Amino acid sequence: MTGPGDTLGLLKLSQSIGRGIRDCLFPKICDSCGLPFENGISNILCLSCFNSIQPYRDPICSRCGDPLDPGAFTGATFLRCVICGDGNYFLDGVRAYGDYSGALRIAHHAFKFEGMESLGALLAERMTLVIPAGFTTEETIFCPVPLSPERERERGYNPAEVLCRQISLKKKIPFRKLLQKIKSIPPQMSLRREDRLLNPEGAYELLPSNSIPTKVLLVDDVFTTGATLEECAKILKKSGVGWVGSVVWGRTPRYL
Fold first, then answer.
1. Is the pTM of this model over 0.90?
2. Separation in Å, CA 211 to CA 37, 148, 178, 235
3. Peptide bond into 208 cis (omega under 30)
4. Residue 121: inside a domain, yes or no?
5. What is the pLDDT along the chain (256 residues), one digit of tens a residue?
6. How far is CA 232 from CA 2, 27, 56, 123, 219, in A?
7. Separation CA 118–CA 162 (nearest Å)
């Protein structure tokens, strides 16, 4: 005769054997290194590859977040890269976790395009590590870059909003939707660079609000040319916001 403890033990044993057989017949293969793994990020990345994603280090362009060579700002008036120069922009600063390549790109693709919404918490946790203290004062409000209603219904969620909510929870800083997308536009990554710069114009507008924050940190998943973030910053600045920055998961190389 067997008791409840014996039954539970047999159940756990059978589950363990079942997992072992499954892993032998259908092992998880890392999309980055190509090796089978047990511990990792869902079924796409082994833990080693995910942990190998390197964050950007200073010096960083104060406007677009591009990492630069040591000593790049020696004697410079503006802490900006050559491309940003000393021009006037609505966006005050950007921080990206790292290069949009390798394991970082694989994790993002699964999160955004393969329905793995739960990965947002992991990505957001890493993103919080690169947000400068000056970006998150008592006046800061976190705001996601919006999707069109059609695209959000199709995907089931807005990746930028998922990241924004998670970062807001981790940083204990208020979250508000301040913008809405009013015009569907082609995805930025499907266009040539010169077309990307013009693509977001007129695509966003301010949501009705009783109060305008002093400081807004926009949250998005990927920085390409920065045109989308610049357009959102323009709308916020013209509404009375004093400072607008952004944090993103990945930053595409300059030539894309």
1. no
2. 50, 24, 10, 15
3. no
4. yes
5. 555 556 655 655 554 454 455 455 568 999 999 999 999 998 999 999 999 999 999 888 888 888 888 877 777 667 888 888 888 899 999 999 999 999 999 999 999 999 999 999 999 999 999 999 999 999 999 999 999 888 899 999 999 999 999 999 999 999 999 999 987 765 555 555 555 555 567 889 999 987 999 999 999 999 988 899 999 999 999 999 999 999 999 998 764 4
6. 66, 44, 24, 22, 11
7. 9
Range of the domain at 194: 54-251
Question: Where does residue 203 fall: left (phi above 0), alpha (psi -120 to 50 degrees), or beta otherwise?
Answer: alpha
Give the span between the Cα atoms of 63 and 84, in whole angstroms.
7
Residues 6+ apart with CB under 8 A from 78: 62, 84, 85, 86
Please report whether residue 7 resides in a domain. no
21 in any annotated domain: no
The two tokens of residue 48 are: 């080693």
For 30, phi then psi, to 5°, come to -70, 130
H or E element that contains 1: none
| CATH classification of the domain holding 222 | 3.40.50
Six token digits for residue 230? 């610049």
Rounded to the nearest 5 percent, the helix, strand and coil shares of the chain are: 40, 20, 45
Cβ neighbours of residue 205 under 8 Å, at least 6 residues apart? 179, 180, 182, 235
176 in Cβ contact with 217 (< 8 Å) = no
When divided into structural domains, the chain yields a total of 1
Q: Tell me the β-bridge partners of 175.
A: 142
